[in-house]
Amino acid sequence: MLKIGLIGVGHLGKIHLKCIRLAREVYDLVGVYDADAELAARIAEEYKVRAFGSAAELIAAAEVIDVVTPTSTHFRVVKQALEGNCHVFVEKPLTETLEEAKELIELSRRAKKLVQVGHVERFNPALLALGEVSVQPYFIEAHRLAMFNPRGTDVSVVLDLMIHDLDIVLKLADSEVSEVRASGVAVLSETPDIVNARIEFCNGAVANLTASRISLKNMRKVRLFQRDAYISLDLLEKESQVIRLFDADATGIPERGQQFPLETPRGHRIIHVDQPPSGPVNAIQMELESLAHSIREGKPAAVSIEDGYRALSLAQRISDAVAENQRRLPHPQS
Ligand code: NAD
């Protein structure tokens, strides 16, 4: 059992608190701390947990610190936790700047402590359901659309929403980025609220991503196109669909799913449509538990601090490309 402390009990922090309680086989919740002392006291009363008077006291009492504070504070809080000899779970994005992220990587290596970043979509049942399906996409299309909510607008939509898909795309493409083009518009907040990015990878794969926080509906879809397969992931509905092409005389066509014959210039083929079953998964509980298992087994974190850095670095390139694009646009007549 690892002693865990939770820093930040706002909107998502409360959900983390419940998930830590569910992960009772691996974690013992020693207490919470929030800069808003009144909120911390209310949460302590409601959830029958101790509210600590400072982050330092909580860190001294814990082995693992779960950081669910605003992005602009991640660097300071994670640094303090690592210096206090704790392993860390930190919500996405890792930090606000690459310099901060680099410093934390150094610090975690020196302290020999794990840092896992909350790229929770890695634990989405739609993605987990792919299991043994071979994923080698040539082209990836991602749409993450959300209705407006002032929470999270302290950073651009790239750091707030697109970062989830950047982590997935980097994992699936499994190649270095060669080229980034992007454009975006700040409509309701001070930073871009809608962004489209085209990312080219050294292995030839291309990803086209759109993220918006000013949509009239919510959508989180990732579509993967690869040789002889099309994979569609609905991360909101937590469902996936795998459509594969087989030669008519191929062996090993999965029994589950539906088959349709198709005449193509390459001969008689079979379209196989499968909806891999995805069980009910509490993704936040699972990501928190995965950190405990990594600590116990001395293995790297499932979503490592380096993964968090890569996603942040790509987000930075996209933000720079958006800014560059905006500089070239004609200014509206006032
Ligand atoms: P929130 O504003 O609702 O809560 C943040 C809490 O942190 C507040 O209670 C605030 O008082 C407290 N706080 C601020 N500075 C602090 C400090 N220095 N020390 C201690 N407490 C401090 O924000 P939220 O929506 O819960 O978001 C928190 C983090 O979670 C952000 O980094 C955000 O990007 C991330 N997030 C991730 C997802 C996801 O899908 N993984 C979804 C939403 C938010």
From TrEMBL:
GO molecular-function term, one example from the UniProt record: nucleotide binding
Domain (Gfo/Idh/MocA-like oxidoreductase N-terminal) ranges: 2-119
Domain GFO/IDH/MocA-like oxidoreductase residues, every copy: 154-217
UniProt name for this protein: Putative dehydrogenase
The organism's taxonomic lineage, starting at the top: Bacteria, Pseudomonadati, Bacteroidota, Saprospiria, Saprospirales
